[in-house]
Amino acid sequence: MVGDMTEKETEKAYIHWLYQAAGMGSRTFLRDLEQVGTARAVYEMAARGVLADRLQDRYRKKGGKLQNAVKDYDVIGRYEEMTARGISMVTCREEGYPRRLAAIQDAPYVLYYAGSLPDEERHCVAVIGARSCTEYGKAMAKEFGAVLARAGILVISGMARGIDGIGQSAALEAGGYSMGVLGCGVDICYPSENRALYERLLAQGGVCSEYPPGTAPKAVLFPPRNRIISGLCDGLLVIEAKERSGTLITVDMALEQGREVYAVPGRVTDALSAGCNKLIRQGAGLVAAPEEFLEDLQAETAGNTGRFLSGRQLSFQIEGTQMEGTQKELLKLLDFQPSSMEALQEAYEDAYGRSIGIPKLCHTLVQLCVDGYAGQIGGSYYLKRRT
């Protein structure tokens, strides 16, 4: 025990040093070093300048790098400084490491996190998609994120702008849990415009990364983190993606890991629907509504223990919400593409066989906007926000 630290925590402090010194991409090297001794033993051999001689020939250069990394490095002080900032770490050899992630072939040796890790007894779904999304994509991300959270399902994503962040925000606003997997250190909010989401994740969910605290975001770091997003989840839901997009990298990783992949369809004329429509043609599960998605998840989960609500249960809850009759009727007519008040007035008469005056139409639409079910664009155009 060093100071007030337990032997286990002391060893983790040395692992923190070793992980940074060896480099994040050295999983095989780190595992082989376990044959040499504990992280503390490796540090002590490096400090004495004898580590390189104890390693296989192919690791001699890395051994020399570790020996140089000992100089002026305060192992305990650096670790205590990190934990004092609310940052924790867990290794793939340690109890508490996410079991789903541990099962993938290239699980990160160390996972840093702030907030809390996902509950192992709960179902996890990754919600991902385009950064530059349409109003339709935004509405779908909000709806799926909220419904999944209300059903007790944990939402995993990359805290990116667009679909990722919108789905996670919706899950948190619905009172659920979400984990953001970052392509930088967990002490860095990226992108900066998602600061409010980042703070809420720390308070209500968590953020994690295989990169040590202080690691700045770089383009090269983001593709590898996608395997963690898919590795933490039971299934992957794609909402809007171009035919060639970074989102599909995560899909490939999910398939390699044996995860179920689902996609929300879109219009064939929309470029941001091309990736989802292609996935569906290739065999991904087609989901047109959150309740339908929940039913699919329940069917895919053998021996389901009722840890989340079924689609039928959730539909009953949604139908039971307080909404005046005309509001329900108009909500059915709204689309995720804007419609003018004149077009809605005509559609209402066609659908229900009776007319609706402009004052009542306007009042009802405004109420739907206040409640978050509709949005107003350009003064007299309205579109659906939630189903």
With helices defined by DSSP (H or I, 4 residues minimum), what is the helix count? 18
User: Which blocks of ≥5 consecutive residues have pLDDT under 50?
Assistant: 302-321
Number of domains: 3
Order of adjacent strands in the largest pleated sheet:
1-2-6-5-4-3-7-8-9
CATH top level assignment of the largest domain: Alpha Beta
Overall geometric form: elongated
Number of beta strands: 12
What CATH architecture label of the largest domain applies? Answer: 3-Layer(aba) Sandwich
Strand content: 5-15%
Explain what you see.
With 387 residues, the protein is α/β, with parallel strands linked by helices. The protein folds into three domains: 1-82, no CATH class; 124-318, Rossmann fold (3-Layer(aba) Sandwich); 325-384, Orthogonal Bundle (Arc Repressor Mutant, subunit A), CATH 1.10.10. The protein contains 18 helices and twelve strands. The chain has helices spanning 7-22, 27-33, 39-47, 51-54, 60-69, 75-84, 99-102, 135-150, 163-173, 195-204, 222-231, 247-256, 274-281, 290-300, 311-319, 325-333, 341-352, 358-370, and strands at 87-91, 110-115, 124-129, 154-157, 178-181, 206-209, 235-239, 260-264, 285-286, 339-340, 374-377, 381-384. The strands form two sheets. It has a nine-stranded mixed β-sheet, with helices on both faces. It has a three-stranded antiparallel β-sheet with strand order 10-12-11. Helix 8 (135-150) links the parallel strand 3 (124-129) and strand 4. Helix 8 (135-150) packs parallel to helix 9, helix 14 (290-300) runs antiparallel to helix 15 and helix 16 crosses helix 18 (358-370). The longest helix has 16 residues, at 7-22. It is elongated and about 90 Å long.
